[in-house]
Structure formats: C-alpha cells, structure tokens
User: What shape does this take?
Amino acid sequence: MRTFNRRHAFQLIAQLSLYGSIISCHRSDQVQQEDELVLLSGMAYELMPYPALPSQLYLNAAENILARDPVQAREGVSALREMTGNTYWSGLRDSEREEIIENLQNLPFFVLVRTVTIETLYREQAMFDLLGYGGSAIEHGGYINRGFDDINWLPGEIN
Amino acid sequence: MATRFELDDESVVVVIGSGAGGGTVSSELCKKGVKVVCLEAGARLQLGDIVNNSPEMFGKLSWLDYRVGEEDAPDGLPVWNCKTVGGTTTHWTACCPRLRDYEFRGASTYGEVAGTNLSDWPFPLAELEPWYTKAEAMLGVTGTNDIERLPPSNNYKVMEAGAQNIGYKDIDTYNMAINSSPRNGRSACLQLGFCSSGCAINAKWTTLFNHIPEAEQSGNFDLRPQSMATQLITGLNGEITAVEYRDSNGSLHTQKARAVCVAGNVVETTRLLLNSANEQHPNGLANSSDQLGRNYMRHMMTQIFALMPGEVNMFKGTQCAGVIRDEIRHDPSRGFSAGFQYHTVGLDPEQIAKTLVDNGWGKEYADVMLKYKNLAGLIVTGEDFPQTDNRITLHPTQKDQYGLPVPVVRYKWHSNSLAMRDYAKQKAQELYESLGATQVFTIDDFGATHNMGTARMGLDPATSVCNPWGQTHDIKNLFVSDGSLFPTSGCANPTLTIISLMLRQSDYIAGLIHSGEM
Assistant: This one.
C-alpha cells in the first residue's frame, strides 16, 4: 500500500469529483470493489470503536452516512478505495487504517462520517447501557429519587 | 376563541418575537389594556411536545436557518437561539444573576481599553433594581423572595469541593428560575436533566407557558405563530406605520401598527432593521449612528470537563444549578479587566462525543467516552467588550427562503477575553485536579447562547441606537425589546436583565399610549 500525505488526499478527492466515474471504469480488470457500506462501516468503527456494540450499528451508520450526503459519501468512498488499492479494509493492518484516517482528518468527508457515526451510535439504547446513561427521565420521575446527589467518593463532608 | 385583530387596525402595538423580550413586553402591555399583535417566526408547542430527547428538541426549538459565521463565530450556527413561541426561554438553563454596579459603568470602570467601543449604560444599577426585584418574583427565582435554592447535585458537589480546595468561597446552587417547590401553577423540579431541551414539566420558567397564556387571558393578545416579519414600513413623517410578514404558506401580509417592538434576538432584530432601509433611512432604520449591528457581544465562554476518580453522572439533574462568584469583579492584577463566573454544566453523551475533543476519534477517544459517568463539568461566562467591527450585517448576495439577505455574524475574540479565558481554564483545571481528576478537557467553540449589544442604549444618538427606554433615537414609535439593547455584557446570563428591562419598557410605552403621545 502506498504512503499518502494530506496534500495527496486533497488532490485525490478533487480529481475524483472532477472526473466522476471515469477512473472507476478503468479498473474493471481489478478484483471486485469493496462494497461501499462495508468501507464506510469500517471507517466508522475506526473512528468510534466499541467492540461491545453489535456490528449492525456500524452498518446503520454507513447507511445513514450515504443518506445524509450521498455525493460527499461516494467521493469519500472512492478516495478510500484508491488509498486501499486491492486490499479490503479488514485486510489492512491497524497502522495502515490509522494512517488513512489521519490523511483524511478534518476534511469534509471525515466530518460527515464522524458526525453521522456519533449520531447513529449515541442514540441507541445499547450505547446508553454501555455508558450507564439513563436516557429519557420523565417517565421515571426524574432523578430526584434516583441518585442525583448520591456521590460517595468526595473527601470530607460534601458526600 | 383566540383574539384576532384586523390587519388594518392601527391601534395595535406589533411585537416581533415571543421570547424573554417579546413575550414579556407583549404580556405587560396586554395587562395594561394595550392591544398587541405578536408575530413569532416559529411554531407553538404544547407541553406534550417537550420530550426528554436532546437532538429531537434541538430540531424543534432552534433557529436552524443558515447564518454566515466569520472569524471566531462558527459558520452555519454562529448563534444558538430559538425559533418557536417562547423563543430562547424554551431552551435556556434558567440562570438568573443580576448585573453588578461596576458592569453598568463599563467605560468608567475599565477606562480606555484598546480596540473596544466601551460605553456606560445610560442609567445606573439603582434604576433597574426595582425591576429586577419584580422580575425575580414573577419568575420565582430561587435565592430570592424567600424561595429555597435547589438541592445540590453530584456535579455541583464536585465543583463546590474543588472550588473550596482552591480558596473560593461564594458558591451555591445559584439563582434559578426553576421551582424548588411548586409555585404559581408550575411544578417543582424533578431533576430530569434536560433543561436545555425544554422543561417537560414546566418547572423551569418560560414565556411559552407563563407570559403567553397570561397575555391571552387579557383578551388583548393576538399571537400569530409561523409569521416571519420581513420589513417595517414607514410613513411620511418617518414613523412606523405597518409590519410586513410572511405566513406559513409564504403569503405576504401587512399589519398596521401604532408602534413596533422588535424582539428577534440580536440577529433577527438587526436584520429586520437593516433590511427595512428606505430612502429616508438608507443605512437601515434607526441607524443614523451607524451602530446598528455593531458592538456585538456574546460573552467569553468556555466549557471545562474533567475525568474524576469516581462516578458523577452529570446527566442526573439540572444542567446549570451551581455557581462560583468569587471572580466577578474588576481586578487587573489577574492580568485582565472585568470579571467572570463559573457555573456547573452537564451534557449528554452525544454532545460530549461530538465536542469533548475537536474532531476527536479512535480507540483512546472511545475509551474516554466509556468513562462518561465520571465526567464533571463547568462553563465559564465572562464579560466581553463591545468592538466596533464585531457586528451583524446582511450578506451582499445570498438570500434565504423568505427572500431576505442571509445574516453575517462576525465576531473576533478580544485579547482581554483570551487572557481571561486562559486564567479561568487554569483555575478550573486546578479545581478538578485538587480532587484527583486524571484528564481535563476544554471546549472553546460553540454557537453563542448569550447575544447582546447590536442596538445599544445610550444618551448620545451619535454613539447609540436607543434611548434609556429602548426607544430608538431616530424613530419615536420604534422600540428594541431584547438583548440588543445592552451597552455592556457584564458576565451575567442576560435573560433576567432582558425581562427586567422589558417590565420597565412596557410601563414607559403604556404611559406614552395612555397620555396620547403615541
């Protein structure tokens, strides 16, 4: 796999948006392209890895990313495919995946994937349970009788 | 059956906006026998529409139309205010401090500060005190009127313990417009933890469920939700004769008026007055001073979160019921002018994940999130100084869905604010580390919820937009009725001051009407 820098990543995405599908047509002799949902969910996991969460949630994130901004998402997927070459995402080493994301850091595609991944994962009950977050409180009468002031590790008499 | 006035009824006062400013001035005028048509851009929610779901309520309450942000104002959402009946009083966290005496006398207190356009308020604190007292009783502010303060939450206890460790003394659960016991038809707080998403049990005061129904009971109040004011029309004598607005179908209507109170929060108030420019007022209405839109202030604000050695569960309870007041003073020995306050803040996991570290990602970041229960947090609110070029203007070409020019919000931090921020962050870090915090995070960039200054009051029409009553210098029957009026920001959350100013302004307006002057 080639080494990329940010300038290359910028140029790549700019090129792809200019020439659209022309580049992908030229690759018909390569192995089957990795599915866009798989790539996006792989990147989503890289950004927010929670092995305890069902992998389905990361596929949901991928679908939501495509729905939120299909143009930006597909440009990003094309860039990812270029950066991974013939290797599927799951076949890359950790350090390679990390390097790819670092080159995409703070670009609009990165922001899209990060924002939508957070919104997908953090609205799930499975995540609430993982974090110990209570979610909606009104149906339980709030926290006035459910520990809003039960702190027990502060020194002195504050507890 | 709801009250409805005719479009050609010239005897009505038109109020634009239904929040802290518009809701208060409307309700007070109605109770004094004045007919009011209130145009609110947003929809009217019922109590059942308020749910404990932060993203859903963000979508329902917030003003989400695109605004340009420049310099230190985030593009897209430079300002976080609301588009709904009740305005930003649906979203606010109900902190109700008063401004201090020295903050009213900003120019006199701080002297010449390079790069600022400081000015004193055109009256001292003593003038506003009776109105503050009236507002506190009306809202049921804890810590006043023999109303007990809210009980201390875990997040508060952490802040209090750390504060005492570093020598602070003036700490309590704050003056809040949130009932500690049932009062005036509103519930007592159940510590739901969703204050900024709207209070689902009406324990937190809002004009939506308080001033608005009161106004309706008078029979003098015609509230028109989903009505976007687009232009103010002036007559031959230069006074306002009517307000043009679009309804929810996009149809244009013209409502005649004897007077107009503009309470759209700084962005919409500025935009409406600028956009109503005509031959007589080519620079915008009431803008002979060229100060309209300028002197925009939003407080120095920063949030600090810390990973503590044990559980805090900051989501369990009111988001902001806790304050440290020791730094509210002018003391240049600290390296900056003016003062600031700390108050507790709680955020839900999604908000933390999005903002704790700017574009944070990866295993390390995810692992911090897994310790969400151990996060404690506070927010710093400091005085920022008016600068001439911190301003709200109209985009030269971009238009919105109403055909109006998109607002441009330009704000640059002053060096005084940066020095204050550095000091406050350092202290907050010490506060949390004194209790064993293992990691401290700061969040600096977010849409401003405290917005002030763009139509400031003053005695001199050359350097201010409005007189001490909020009446514009240039147009006798045009009033500004929101935080745009503030000549200085102080470091107090602005809502109580806005409401107090409006209790006073409505007295003045009713006086003009009843004496036949307007």
